[in-house]
Backbone:
């Protein structure tokens, strides 16, 4: 009863259909281009970006050193360790060393002209590093 018609469609097994199809070849993706795409998509800085930022930071630090009074800018005729001005700690230490029986807080403050808070911090720091000792309360001697 079954008759075949000339226009009937023959079904092919699945294995035959995939092998008979033409595969479209794509270019292989290189690892470098993959990394570049990831870096671009996540907006990560590249090596060149970091080098540019580092150069800008160096220029800014150089400018700050030149304009600020605390920067160590080399000048002609002065050596690296030579300082013409004495530090606040050096001034306090000099006052304490020049007194024979030790210097009390009021004497140090009168000779240096420093405010209470600044003078207390300097004395604490000098005592901590061992440059001065406390003879009695409020009286300091050079170590």
Residues:
């Amino acid at each position: 009863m079954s008759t075949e018609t000339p226009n009937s469609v023959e079904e092919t097994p699945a294995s035959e259909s995939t092998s008979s199809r033409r595969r479209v070849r794509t270019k292989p993706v290189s690892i470098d281009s993959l990394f570049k795409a990831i870096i671009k998509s996540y907006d990560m800085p590249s090596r060149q970006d970091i080098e540019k930022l580092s150069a800008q930071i160096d220029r800014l630090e150089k400018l700050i050193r030149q304009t600020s009074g605390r920067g160590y800018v080399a000048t002609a005729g002065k050596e690296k360790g030579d300082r013409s001005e004495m530090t606040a700690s050096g001034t306090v230490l000099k006052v304490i060393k020049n007194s024979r029986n030790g210097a009390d807080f009021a004497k140090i403050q009168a000779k240096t002209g420093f405010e209470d808070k600044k003078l207390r911090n300097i004395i604490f720091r000098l005592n901590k590093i061992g440059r001065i000792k406390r003879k009695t309360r409020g009286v300091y001697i050079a170590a």
Summary: Residues 47-67 form the longest helix (21 residues).
